[in-house]
Amino acid sequence: MADEAGVPLFINARTDVYLASVGEPETLLSETLERAAAYVVAGANGVFVPGVVDFETVTALVKGIAAPLNVMVWPGAPSVEEFAGLGVARISVGAAIAQSVHALTRRAAREVLASGTYTSFADGLSYPELNGLFERRS
What we know:
Blueprint: E1 12-14, H1 28-41, E2 46-48, H2 55-64, E3 69-72, H3 80-86, E4 90-92, H4 96-115, H5 127-133
Parallel strand pairs: 1-2, 2-3, 3-4
């Protein structure tokens, strides 16, 4: 699918059945599969199911959804390689990277205020490295 300018579009429909615990625990899988099927019929190219990372459920979702599956990850979740082995097409980190940066910022500020030291800054990127992140690459 592409928009008017010819830019390819990928519609990744999201269902928060697991993330929000919609319904009884024994109905979460069937509810998710029903919603996913409706999204695919409506034209979704993929389905995003945040809130679930266990192998059994992810395997059932991969088998039961007629589109690529996307899951959200967090510390303790299976690795990218493990998810790929289950058939997961995409992982999302959600806000985890930003949350990690904010945690480091808080630790660094607390260190300066509490002890007057700066060891939290030790692993920071140099200005050339930071500037390189913004270079245009073709």
